[in-house]
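Action item from last meeting closed. Structure (285 res):
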């Protein structure tokens, strides 16, 4: 039986969270005797990060490598700043967007410390400056390679819609919403019929939902409340089904026969974004 206090008991994995989520640092870090930390900071200062570590984890890690990003100053130069070292902490200050060279040097600094059995913990407060500098994908791929040899636990944060599918697939778990354009592209590819009806009738579908007094109506009931419209109950039903696929509304499944739609789950903001995206599609042809 393995000792639960050893780094081998911590599972490798890269996880993407919403930027707004205020989750504590992983509790596994408190049970790991030797941790090398890479912290990419955009919201907190290095001092605030170190105070948080002491409060939530406790003892200083084997090494701290901090990359502090100033997002207020946008740098177009691909310069590589030099780190300053104090105690067991290496600190580099840089500006956004962050180039792959800066990220590679940060990771190299962390890995330069000898470790017979390493847990590398990577904390990224915002992927945005890395995405803008085209350094997010190389970093994530490198972390996956390192995980073949060492234990690597990475937690990154991003806003909903900020990460496209090619980057999201590099994570073991994703807790943010896909960009609307990605959802619509998938709907168009996988269900072109539903996409076509939604493209033509999304405004009527929006009007039918928002003026309905029913919580769980059928398409024909929503259609009856529209008055003058070019839709039929059938075409409106197909458009509503497309909205279900996009996550705007949900089906109410405790029924038989025609679908009923759960309008208590209606996401008006999301439908607005869907409409904007579809309007751009119409303009581009």
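Sequence:
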């Amino acid at each position: 039986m393995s000792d639960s206090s050893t780094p081998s008991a911590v599972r490798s994995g890269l996880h993407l969270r919403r930027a707004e989520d205020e989750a504590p640092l992983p509790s596994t870090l408190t049970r790991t005797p030797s941790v090398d930390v890479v912290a990419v900071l955009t919201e907190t200062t290095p001092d605030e990060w170190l105070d948080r570590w002491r409060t939530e984890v406790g003892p200083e890690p084997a090494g701290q490598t901090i990359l502090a990003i100033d997002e207020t100053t946008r740098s177009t130069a691909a310069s590589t700043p030099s780190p300053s070292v104090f105690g067991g902490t290496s600190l580099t200050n840089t500006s956004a967007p962050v180039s792959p060279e800066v990220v590679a040097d940060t990771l190299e600094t962390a890995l330069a410390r000898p470790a017979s059995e390493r847990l590398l913990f990577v904390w990224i407060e915002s992927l945005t400056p890395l995405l803008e500098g085209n350094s997010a994908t190389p970093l994530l791929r490198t972390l996956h390679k390192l995980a073949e040899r060492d234990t690597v636990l990475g937690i990154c944060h991003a806003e909903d819609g900020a990460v496209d599918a090619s980057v999201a697939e590099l994570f073991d778990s994703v807790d943010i919403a896909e960009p609307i354009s990605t959802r619509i592209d998938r709907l168009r590819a996988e269900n072109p019929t539903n996409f076509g009806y939604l493209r033509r009738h999304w405004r009527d579908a929006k009007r039918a939902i928002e003026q309905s007094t029913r919580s769980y109506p059928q398409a024909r009931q929503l259609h009856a409340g529209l008055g003058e419209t070019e839709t039929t109950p059938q075409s409106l039903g197909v458009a509503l089904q497309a909205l279900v696929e996009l996550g705007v509304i949900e089906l109410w499944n405790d029924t038989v026969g025609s679908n009923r739609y759960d309008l208590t789950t209606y996401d008006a903001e999301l439908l607005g974004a869907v409409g904007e995206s579809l309007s751009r599609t119409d303009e581009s042809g």
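Note appended to the action item: The chain has two domains: 7-178, 181-284.
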